[in-house]
Amino acid sequence: MHRVRFAPSPTGYLHIGSARTFIFNWLYARHNGGTMILRIDDTDVERNTQASLDSIFEGLKWLELDWDGEVYRQSERGELHAASARQIFEAGHAYRDFTPARVESEDAADSGHGGWLFNPGMRELSREESDRRASAGEPFVLRFLVPRETRESVAFTDLVYGPQTKATADIEDFALLRSSGMPTYHMASCADDADLKITQIIRGQDHLTNTFKHQLIFEALGVEPPQFAHLPLLIAPDGAKLSKRKHGPVVSVTTYRDAGFLPHAFVNFVCLLGWSPKDDRERMTRRELLDIFSLEGVNRSNATINFSETEPFDPKAVWLNAETIRNLPVDELSAELLPFADASFGWIPGSGPEPQRLVPEDKIRRLVPLVAPLIRERIKLLGDIRDAADFFFLPTVHPDPLELIPQKGDAAMAALVLQEAEVALAEATFTHDGLDAALRASAEKLKIKAGQMFQPIRVAVCGRKNAPPLFETLEVLGKDICLERIAAARKLL
RNA sequence: GUCCCCAUCGUCUAGUCGGCCUAGGACAUCGCCCUUUCACGGCGGUAACGAGGGUUCGAAUCCCUCUGGGGACGCCA
Global pTM? Predict the structure, then answer.
């Protein structure tokens, strides 16, 4: 039986690292027919926000990842945590430390405070004195009494990193309960994992050294510790662990969503960071992913995710997204594209808090399925529709007169082409074949190359040189708009 | 500072017990082809075993040292 959990703390939006931890847990659970539990680690009341919690749920919903109904909040399980702490204390594995809290000093970790293990005098306090001071109301933290005298080391076998041991002499007396009575992360997490019968804890490698402490807690609680699998960390191009504070919105899952990533492309990309199917496969469906996922394929070294000021997304993620777009059936792609089209073209830019419609919704709705097949090979993100398809939606285009001039031609040729095009198109059937026949005949008549014929027309109707294939484009635009735009372009010459 | 982890192309990675590795794939990049533009697609190129010692007939693969990188060391999670 496999029971895994995803345990985010709601102190910021859902970021890529957390999403990956979720995905690996999810894959593990689904692959093994296990259960996936969601647990909100919200013991730090100071830093928790509802907005952050919303963002986490929103992100998971977008990724189309589910869990098995059970959602727990640590803040509602205080009694369990307290009881567990009491149990450890009564069993003699913890002691009260009445030392006042250390004041927030910046480099606490490296300013000569190196090998801190415990506060002097506190381990030795007799039970009577400890009880007396506690009942007198003196504040204390409950610390784990690391068994340095009776035991050399703590060991466990990580499912990814293999056998791990750490000398008890290197483990400090960590806190279980704060002076407020609230449990620390270590206490709450282990008490819950034990109570919820979690069998595998799959989490970031930044917890690897914490695991020795957790091992100790489980033992003190008298329960069999779960198995652990630590995942290599995701690091930024600057070499540091990915963090919201340092690297900004690019680490947020919603940033990917808003730019027009498809959920599965994102999941696919994230899976490739620190895990490999070992057979050179890169694009995988969700089905394939969960069929072949295994902790054995998880790597041990950290993975750099590439992004920069100019390219906010890892090029491989973008490629994967483009591939996914190209392989989507037109109707599905259209549905995905619709909100982006509406946001890009539907409204008058900067029309204030109550935006005004620029293009009617039904027009956008009608056009998107026609445009989708023409741009699917030309966009990498759904949001690219804004630049790739503007001329289909916007009422007017503004061609650069210089661009109307064809290769190895001049303004006179452009004028001639447009004049001829106007005549030919007025007669032509607006289908791919009809337009093909009409315009090639025109080129022949003018004794110019097909390309020279097409370029001025393309620029006239699209407003620029780079656009989807001409005939399909003209067909979607329709005769009226094409003739109108060609006439307008002629005036520019 | 103390402890832990890691180390193959720019990036993500393959490399089961050491020989089949003159190190494979993908992205990115460069070139060519296809082509009405842009894309897509096809073909090809550049590009890596951090260093030094061992062990061995033979090491990217095993051991040691160094170096480099990351992480943890909080009454945060």
Answer: 0.93
